[in-house]
Design goal:
By secondary structure, the protein is of the alpha/beta class. The chain has five domains: 96 residues; 123 residues, Nucleotidyltransferase, domain 5 (2-Layer Sandwich); 44 residues, no CATH class; 119 residues, DNA polymerase, domain 1 (Orthogonal Bundle); 191 residues, Intergrase catalytic core (hpI Integrase, Chain A, Orthogonal Bundle), CATH 1.10.443. The chain has 25 helices and 15 strands. The strands form five sheets. Strands 5-4-3-6-7 form a five-stranded mixed sheet, sandwiched between helices. A three-stranded parallel sheet has the order 8-9-10, with no helix packed on it. β3 and β4 form a beta hairpin. α19 packs across α21.
Length: 614
């Protein structure tokens, strides 16, 4: 559905624009009136905000010169006259959509002082394509706001080259860049010019561009692209020498495998997405020249994706294979795969087919960087997903397997704690905690659930009212979402928490009271735990962990030694020592193997505790 200006309004816009164009030196007041008419037309002129800022600048300069005298005259700049002519030519056919369709293209961009980076994602959040490059010496000295806006511009050009008639959403971690795109310009000349270029490109290709904020910590893919160095490819012949060669042998029509920084000809083809390249030269990753493309596919699990391309699998099949990792594993592996590509780029070795020496030297480099046994094991597993040596995953090579025990001897990975705290200490604190406020009631319920279920903060975060049943004697909890320990054939069984004789510690009593007090605050939210502060939204896993830490600290637990996750070992260890059957502990906490509990969670406590812990 669209909206357009009524005839009377269109006539007024054209008359005001013609009046200014035909008046050699209009007054500042007349210009201000015209600006007001144009701005009031924005709801019905989609690209109107792109074509009035030159008038605004002329007005401001004239007011400064005349010391605020609106009766003073001014001379319109060439840019202002161009904008006025645009209104005259387009106001009759202009319209604006009341609501744009959801974006069909999702991008993220980022800039650092080294370079720019952009990522294009598909609908399920998987990386489809990445782009990036270095800044020139002149660009690197520009303000970060300019660089962020330029990174967004380059990302659109490089990753949306063939898009037409669609909605593009670009996520940026810089609010100034977002504002300039959303408002189609701004006050700063450089940023305003960039925003103008972006929107002119959108108009030419019938695109709508929306900008949204993304937290910097969630923009790691584009951030990595902005920091990668490709010094082994960013070089060219001296321009004078190139000129002499072309004078003697003739000037070619096109520069192949170039970039915007090293192209010698106006027309050039890049080896990866480039904002100004005529085209991109695709290189099959299975060929001997595939090294160049593979070196830059470092975002997320692109290394693994590149490795399996030799089997010519579809994008859908590759995405399913990549989905075999949980989000946590994905992020952990991503860190070391990125480091591997940076390392191989610096050492000029093939990241897809390295020698065992390259692998060992990389692990040694990580070791000297302060990384311990556990993290190095993760790095080994990450590389094993796509690097094979002698038809074996590189992590299974005898020398690599022997390397890790050596790391353990030099930098042993010992358990953080050999003992755990006594849950009774926390229960006594909760029993006397004043729950007159929604805050204290929320904290009590959260810690009681952590102790009674032995579950992680992630599991507590996923508790849903639709999966909880309460009666006079018990609370029954089911999990409808995938948990960390969920795997094929195994999911967390229903947890039954019985009522307790002490009302202050009875989960049935505390949960019933919590639901009654939060019923009017939820506004449709079904997640059990919501914030105790306005606007009372569902909380994140990190918030739940922080709540647990707060209560444990107030109860006298030394949180410089223990973590919020220690509730899992404290409650289950105490339950075992008070004769709770091992099968009950394993079932409630979600373990299928008693060895996991015995090795990592069953720790000695100083005092006996009550069976309330499970």
């Amino acid at each position: 559905m669209t909206i357009s200006l009524p005839l009377r309004k269109r006539v007024k816009v054209k008359d005001m624009s013609l009046l200014l164009l035909n008046t050699p030196c209009p007054t500042i007041e007349t210009v201000a009136q015209c600006i007001g008419v144009l701005v009031s037309s924005f709801p019905g002129v989609q690209y109107g905000p792109r074509h009035y800022r030159s008038l605004e600048k002329d007005k401001i300069r004239a007011l400064q010169k005349s010391r605020g005298n609106y009766s003073a005259q001014l001379q319109l700049s060439k840019e202002s006259k161009t904008d006025l002519q645009w209104w005259i030519n387009n106001v009759d056919s202009a319209m604006a959509l009341i609501s744009h369709l959801p974006p069909s293209v999702i991008l993220t961009s980022d800039a650092s002082k080294k370079g720019w980076g952009g990522i294009r994602y598909d609908k399920d959040g998987t990386i489809m394509q990445s782009a990036g490059g270095r800044w020139s010496e002149l660009e690197a000295n520009q303000h970060i706001n300019v660089l962020e806006l330029k990174a967004a511009w380059f990302s659109c050009l490089a990753l949306c080259r063939n898009e037409k008639n669609c909605h593009i959403r670009i996520n940026i971690d810089n609010t100034t860049a977002i504002a300039y795109i959303s408002h189609m310009g701004g006050k700063t000349p450089t940023c305003n010019a960039l925003a103008g270029q972006i929107w002119d490109w959108c108009v030419d290709n019938k695109l709508w561009l929306s900008a949204a904020h993304i937290a910097g910590r969630n923009n790691s893919d584009a951030d990595l692209e902005s920091r990668l160095e490709h010094d082994n490819t960013e070089w060219k012949l001296d321009s004078n020498l190139f000129h002499k060669v072309t004078q003697q042998f003739g000037k070619p029509e096109m520069d192949l495998f170039a970039s915007r920084l090293n192209n010698q000809l106006p027309k050039y083809v890049s080896w990866r997405p480039d904002p100004y390249a005529l085209a991109q030269e695709d290189i099959d990753s299975s060929s001997s020249e595939g090294k160049t493309t593979a070196q830059d596919d470092t975002s997320s699990m692109q290394g693994f994706r590149s490795a399996i391309q030799k089997w010519r699998l579809s994008q859908e099949t590759q995405s399913i294979l990549l989905s075999s990792w949980r989000d946590g594993t994905y992020k952990q592996y991503n860190t070391y795969i990125q480091k591997w590509y940076q390392y191989s780029d610096q050492r000029s070795c093939d990241p897809m087919s390295p020698s065992v020496t390259d692998i060992l030297e990389f692990l040694t480099n990580l070791f000297h960087g302060g990384i311990g046994y556990s993290a190095l094991n993760t790095a080994r597993s990450a590389l094993s997903t796509f690097i094979y040596i002698d038809n074996l995953p590189c992590g299974n090579h005898p020398l690599v397997k022997r390397f890790l025990p050596g790391v353990f001897q030099l930098r042993p990975a010992l358990p953080r704690n050999a003992v755990t705290w006594d849950p009774q200490q926390v229960l006594v604190f909760l029993e006397h905690l004043d729950c007159a406020t929604i805050k204290n009631l929320t904290l009590k319920l959260t810690v009681l659930l952590a102790l009674l279920t032995g579950q992680r903060a992630q599991s507590l975060h996923l508790l849903d009212l639709r999966n909880i049943t309460i009666d006079a004697e018990s609370v029954k909890i089911r999990f409808g979402d995938k948990l960390k320990h969920t795997r094929p054939g195994h999911h967390q069984q229903e947890i039954v928490l019985n009522s307790f004789s002490t009302p202050e510690l009875c989960i049935v009593n505390v949960l019933t009271r919590y639901l009654a007090q939060t019923e009017q605050l939820r506004v449709g939210a079904t997640q059990l735990l919501i914030s105790y502060q306005k606007p009372y939204k569902p909380v994140t896993r990190a918030t739940i962990s922080r709540w647990i830490k707060t209560v444990l600290s107030q109860a006298g637990i030394d949180m410089t030694i223990f973590t919020p996750h220690s509730t899992r070992s404290a409650s289950t260890s105490a339950a075992l020592r008070t004769a709770v059957p091992l099968s009950t502990i394993l079932k409630t906490a979600g373990w299928t193997n008693k060895c996991t509990f015995g090795t990592y969670y069953n720790k000695p406590v100083t005092d006996p505790v009550y069976k309330i812990c499970l």
